[in-house]
What does this fold into?
Amino acid sequence: MLAESGFVHDQDNDLWIPSTQVNVDYADGSEAYLQGVFRDADVITDYPVELAGSIHDWASRYHLSHLRVNLLDAIGDLLDESWTALELGAGPGALTKWLAQRVARVDAFEGSLDRARANRLRTRGDENVRVLVGDIAHTPFPDVYDLVTLVGVLEYMPLASNMSRDEACLAALRKVHASLKENGTLVLALENQLGLKYWAGCREDHTGCLFDGLIGYPNRSAITYSRNRLESLLREAGFDYLQFYHVFPDYKLPTTVIRECDEVLSLSPHEWVRDFAEDYGQPRFNLLPDPVVLRTMRDAGLFFHFSNSFMVLCSKSPLANLKTDWCIRKYWTYSRPELHHRISLVDREGARVVERRPYQHGQERVVLDEYVFEPIDSVHVPGTLVMYDVYDALLSDDWRSALSVIAVKVLDESVSRFSTHVKGESGCEMLDGASLDFTFWNLMRTSEDSLEVIDCKWTKTAPIPADYVMFRGLWGALRTFAPYVRGDIIDAIREIIQQRFPGCDDERLLSFYGEEMRFQALVMGTEYVAPDELPKIPYGGGMMRDK
It folds into this structure.
């Protein structure tokens, strides 16, 4: 079939190259390095945690990070193992390997010869993968497919054409439409031109300049689209059936995917997005706190227009299944692999349930020294995530007093639930180890103003002092929000804890900080180095609201 379509087999590199091939001049400088990584690797899996040690900059992180595959895993249940797939702009194979394990055949189509070579090295053990070198705009596709992926590619089409930006993208989409079987599915992913990250202080991903997309891309460059404009282009290309998914922090390293539907807006989707977006390769400006602004967008009915990235499932047939059975899915995959799991908000027999399942190398129960990890399912609890109460407190004028009120309320509740009725050596009340995760980010404040635990996957086998539980919550919240905290973080923690525990001096705080760092090192699988002083994290400079 490939030979009949005008492709010639390059046996030395195991690539298929059309006789009219013109190599696309697109590279990020990592191609030779990646070829070396793949050539030297003993094992390369579809979830490449084994390649983490080869990541040394943004380009290598983008191509080697296991987070990349979360995007397609999110809609993996919609795929069929009998399908044939065309992966356009396949690059060095970050998604090719994943696809090869889940469909019958993958034609990985890549314009850059160097990237195609890297892809073939990465997928050299996958007999159902064919790597084709071709220009998407001009090289004919050799077949029709059940699945086509266009991930991070559409935005570059104007650079390969003399047509206008919209015309170039529309021509590519029409060509994809023609390459799909009648019930086939296109998976399209790209950044949102109006993504919140670009308002909050991240530079435009393709140009490296602040606000370039927001002001309409003044120079010749790759481009992205707003939600409504993207939908119009897809419908104009002939895709009558669409399902939008919204991806955070973006499609490149996704951790949260939200299916667009009216119902999800009532489920506080912003509370599933607790990370601040990165400006890859350089520090971001901290103009706005992303999670708080997302809440405002949700309240205004604009949440779907300001997500950082889109994934759109498209078809020309009503018979294509474009809708997942979950409405929100989150990936907890930054830690050591045996802790990896995914969290899904689903309806089960009329009840809304939060399901937590081991993911890839994840295990149902893990013991790390005296810490036990065991994620379990729970009923969805409506209300307000207490972390958002903390955000509001930190943005208020008298933020230390406001935060203290919340911290004391959580402390009192933890003592009420977990007290062992035993005092420690310091005279502080000791709590059951299950209180470890009784923190702002794991608590929901209900409409009756009670606190409900929504995620307690960690416990400690030994009792822990109440002031450490208080420290852990304050440190986690203030460190996360550091760019917008006015004043020294440790000074604020000390002041708030000493209101309840006057004997909690700097020596004790240092021991708490050391224990928290040891715990995080266990979680991440990194070496622990005991700190010899408390950290100094001053006000980060974002949102200059000081009076």
User: Anything to note?
Assistant: Residues 115 and 427 are 63 Å apart (CA to CA). The mean pLDDT is 94. The first helix runs from residue 31 to 40. Residues 384-524 form one domain.
